[in-house]
Amino acid sequence: MVEVYAEPLCRRHYSSLLSWAVVVRLLLLIIAIACALVIAYATGGFWVQIKPTMDQATVQYTQDALLLIEGGSPGMEQIWSTNSLINAQFSEEFIPASVQTSVEDTNYDGKPDVINFVARVQSSTPVYGVKVLLQFQYGFFNLVRVQMYSLAYFSASTGTPGGVLYVDGDLNLVQRSPINDMSYNGVYNYPILNSQPPNTLQSVQAPSQLLFEDIIADYKTRNYTTTYSNVYPVWKAGSGNTFELKMVVRIPPNQMIWYRPQTIEMLKNAWIQFLATFIVLWWLYSYVEQFIFFFRLVSTRVASDLHPKMQRF
After folding, report:
1. What is the rounded distance in angstroms from the CA atom of residue 4 to the CA atom of residue 258?
2. On the CB side of 2, how many CA atoms lie within 13 Å of its CA?
3. pLDDT interval class at 3 (50, 70, 90)
4. pLDDT of 193 strictly over 90
């Protein structure tokens, strides 16, 4: 003989609504819910208020730059900028520059992966140091929606005159606070290297000094910035006064972004954590119920499937 079907037989316990049996059943249910909430919360991951995501930023070079060439002693600085007002302010220190820029999209996804910036100057003195600021329009438009103007800053100096400086680095996002999920953020979507406030002219001290530290300090007060990091510079010595800066800015394809999820997403994750814990606890409490009702610790009326009721026709 082969078993082809099985029917479970039950013993059903009945009681009035106002009885100790109902109180015990409700008490066990409440304890299971409370313990599931406590365990899910205490073990972490129950109410996730900050979550990470990965995305590639859409970056565009705004054709705004600021270049400071340093000589062998103080007072021998030379300045070039895309801002005509700054060039006029530093007319005596102004140095013409030949600039070339190019964009590379290596994976053909419509987003720039590499931005190349090349500047060539004919300095009146040997070049011992250089400071450069490049401005970009930087944004994310998927799960996190933020658009802003950002900067890439780099500084290098040496004890010998330089002819070529090659630098390769990544443009990474820096956050002081998480970004709200699915909410457009454009609070910093205004140019930094321009002639309108807030502008770099606020950092001009005296007729011939431009303080990069003031520009950087004002920029670093923002909640969201970019930094030119993971930099590999190569400084080549030069015998003449011709200097060439080659700057490669790479946009990481998997930028880590910390965001604040919406309430419905936090509730969904919390519900999964609670349900997974509650099922295990309720399975354990079922044995407690079985012990209570099997040994008749509370008064109930029992109906067994082993003794079916008489059929009436």
Report:
1. 56
2. 1
3. low
4. no
Digit-coded pLDDT (tens) for 106-151:
999 999 999 999 999 998 888 899 999 999 999 999 889 999 999 9
Strands 179-180 and 255-260: parallel
Domain coordinates of the chain in residue numbers? 11-47+263-304, 51-260
Instruction: Give φ, ψ of 236 to 5 degrees.
Output: -110, 130
Query: Do 258 and 179 touch, CB atoms closer than 8 A?
Result: yes
Whole-number Å distance between alpha carbons of 184 and 259: 12
Over residues 44-72, the pLDDT tens digits come to 888 888 899 999 999 999 999 999 998 87
Distance separating alpha carbons of residues 293 and 304, to the nearest angstrom? 13
Cα separation, 248 vs 93, whole angstroms: 26
CB contact at 8 A, 69 and 77: yes
Q: What is the pTM of this model?
A: 0.77
Residue 247 β-bridge partners: 117, 167
Report d(CA 130, CA 80) in Å as an integer: 11
Q: Hey, what are 189's tokens? A: 């979507």
Q: What CA–CA distance (Å, rounded) separates 117 from 63?
A: 10
User: If you search the block for the tokens 């730059």, which residue do you land on?
Assistant: 65
Dihedral in degrees, nearest 10, Cα atoms 205, 210, 212, 217: 30
